[in-house]
Amino acid sequence: MKTTLVLENARTEIINAIRKWGISRSDISAILITGSLARNDNRTDQYSDIDMVVITNKPHYYQQSSTWAGELGKVVSCYNGGRMIHESFVKRIYFENCVGADITFITNNAFSVAWFTAVLKRRFTSLLKILPSSLIANIESSITASTYYIHRGFYMLVDKRKKLEKIRYLEQVYTYRLSSEMPVGKFENTVNAFWQEAFRMAIKISRKEYFGAKFECDHMMKSYLLNMITWYTMSKQGNSYETWHKGRFIEEWTEPAIMERVKLIYSRYDPEDTWRGLFEITELFKNITDLLMKYYDIKITDPGDTMINWIYDLEKSISLRGDHLPLQMQK
């Protein structure tokens, strides 16, 4: 593996190549560097990839082809990722020098619509109300998602048409803020979705479908648990507390006691340990749910008590059948 200095120099070479490429392409109006390379928190290391946003008239060209990536460096791997916002997509690339790049492409039209909406919101609110509310909601949702990705910092690598001024204006009008209230609707949906996945996982384990149990159900349950841990942490630390995304740095921002229990929710590929992991995650989820419901005085019907009993009963019937040793777990 290459040394830290070599990798950092290689990344600088790719960034310089991106700058030249962006300047030379007439369809590209701006390129922003975002993510860890644009933050001043010393979170980068030699493996930090290049997160960037390209504003262009030809996003479909970059989506349908990958030959252009060779202009940035010798490509080892390249594929189309998901959407960051509406009318966008991500191209994920690794170059021969071990440098990774996540490039999000946004249309010039989408950017112009976002900026125009911000102008209406700030200066001509009455005109904004004339437009269909669903249309404005979709546009503003995309703007809010965009400001989330740049709220920790960004810088312009290429700016041909003074996009920076408009981006700053968008930030002012649609400043990214965490909600000051518990999203009760999302909370209720998370609770119900978690318990349905938990019971489905128990059924799959009972059928000896261990791969499906882990791939289909366990993955989703961990995502719902992360929502709960995030909300719980904010209930203790305040809504402005940084909890990052997708569980990044969770070892630093969540309580040590919760982190110790999180370590137990991962299980091996065998029946006994898969059951154990299922019981660990359901009990942790239930504990945090109860704490949040009490703290925020949330009045919803929690299916946890009923469904956790279904899971225990199913595990007990399987152990009596002799498929695995019974687990000594406390309800």
TrEMBL record:
SUPFAM superfamilies the record matches: Nucleotidyltransferase, PAP/OAS1 substrate-binding domain
Pfam families for the chain: Adenyl_transf (PF04439)
Signal peptide: none
Identification of the protein by name: Aminoglycoside 6-adenylyltransferase
Source organism: Chitinophaga oryziterrae
